[in-house]
Specification:
Methyltransf_11; transferase; 401 residues; single chain; S-adenosylmethionine-dependent methyltransferase activity; two-stranded antiparallel sheet; SAM-dependent_MTases_sf; 14 helices; SAM-dependent methyltransferase; Rossmann fold
């Protein structure tokens, strides 16, 4: 969770950072704040950075944190939260993740983050990790990690996780609610990464790479800082219709950024996970109609599917004791429904057509009701529970979801 001296570099000067106070790091000339053990290294925020450091040096960490929590990305459409909005974050220790996102004025993004654990795009990422994260990987860094959904998956499987994102408040939510033990850093991916050469066994970037305008630069930095695999998931395809608001490019252009990568239609990975089978790779010319693509390349040139798993599966729950019925399948009274109840029309239009695996048969509804009453943990039920978890009908959600 804690960054050691000289482990990070200044992305703008290339000089190593050392801790020069409990709340800051310095390269000898420039200082950057560290709040909740999250270094704030964003570009083009010099004035804000100085204000934050001044608040910290005056002993007002709350004021510094408020400044950080109000900082948004360049895609944000709404107004940032004001101090009144944020007060419950400091006054109520029992806030849920969803309540915290409301305080931060996340709007529609809050729906996405609250229910991402069963979205088809999230499931595709699990399949990508299942079949292509090297079995020997001990460290992984996720670029644009958001509030830490995948970081949580890494940590529960014993993989040391680092999360990087341009929005501080998302990292703060990861620290407080989702992946408390991950090491986190707030950075701008369009500049040099603050990591040494070959720092990680793998890089992972999911449902975000298409947003980055400097894709060639980012790809080069991913290659520089990994000694193993690079996994890019759910990259929107400019040749196909999708819900992208980013800077998508074609499948061929994505592939050209890396060294002969393995390519997938994102929908194929989702289907493979739900159907419990290996995914089928695609050639570039077969992906023109794919709404999103995934790709894998390896720094050592060994681009192939993992055959022998030496870690817990990403497609099965780590603990059945913590499983909860997917909230999308519960009505306002907590009654189980046969089909998901989506939080908005936009959310439903984007995910419902690809989420048939969340629909329940009458028999499955009865099984879930039995689980609610306390089902006996025999072998047959264990298989049923594993299947329901693989289909994301049962979820291992954060305690304060």
């Amino acid at each position: 969770m804690i960054w050691r001296d000289e482990e990070l570099t200044n992305p703008f000067s290339g000089k190593r950072f050392r801790r020069d106070s409990p709340h800051s790091v310095s390269d000898g000339e420039n200082r950057f704040p560290v709040v909740e053990e999250i270094p704030y290294l964003r570009a083009n925020r010099d004035e804000l950075r100085d204000k934050i450091l001044n608040r910290l040096e005056a002993g007002d960490e709350k004021a510094a944190l408020i400044l950080l929590l109000r900082d948004q990305d360049d895609w944000a459409r709404g107004e940032p939260p004001n101090e009144t909005d944020l007060q419950p974050l400091f006054e109520n220790q029992n806030l849920s993740l969803r309540e915290a996102m409301s305080c931060l004025r996340y709007g529609a993004v809050a729906d996405y983050f609250a229910h991402r654990w069963s979205d088809p795009t999230f499931v595709s990422g699990l399949a990508l990790l299942e079949y292509h994260l090297p079995p020997s990987a001990k460290t992984i860094c996720e670029l644009a990690c958001g509030i830490g959904h995948y970081l949580r998956e890494f940590q529960t499987r014993g993989i040391a996780a680092v999360g990087a994102d341009v929005v501080y408040s998302k990292l703060w939510l990861a620290r407080k609610f989702v992946a408390p033990n991950a090491r986190l850093v707030c950075l701008d991916a369009n500049y040099d990464f603050p990591f040494a050469d070959k720092s990680f066994d793998a890089w992972f970037c999911h449902d975000a790479f298409y947003f980055l305008p400097e894709k060639k630069r980012v790809a080069d930095e991913l290659k520089r800082t990994t000694r193993g695999a690079i996994l890019i998931g759910h990259a929107h395809n400019a040749e196909a219709e999708n819900f992208s608001s980013g800077v998508a490019i074609s499948a061929g252009e994505y592939a050209a950024l890396f060294d002969e990568p393995i390519l997938y239609d994102d929908a194929e990975l989702t289907g493979a996970a739900v159907e419990n089978r290996k995914p089928a790779a695609s050639k570039v010319n077969e992906l023109k109609t794919a709404a999103a693509i995934d790709l894998v390349c390896n720094a050592n040139g060994e681009n192939q599917m993992t055959e022998i798993f030496q870690r817990p599966s990403f497609l099965a729950p780590m603990s059945q004791e913590k499983l909860r019925i997917n909230p999308l399948l519960l009505d306002a009274n907590g009654e189980i429904q046969p089909s998901p109840i989506y939080p908005s029309k936009r959310y439903a239009s984007e995910y419902a057509p690809l989420s048939d695996y969340l629909k329940l048969s009458e028999a499955e509804q009865e099984i879930l009701k039995s689980i609610g009453r306390g089902i006996e943990n025999d072998l047959s039920n264990e298989k049923i529970l594993t299947d329901l978890a693989r289909r994301r009908i049962l979820l291992d959600l954060p305690e304060k979801w």
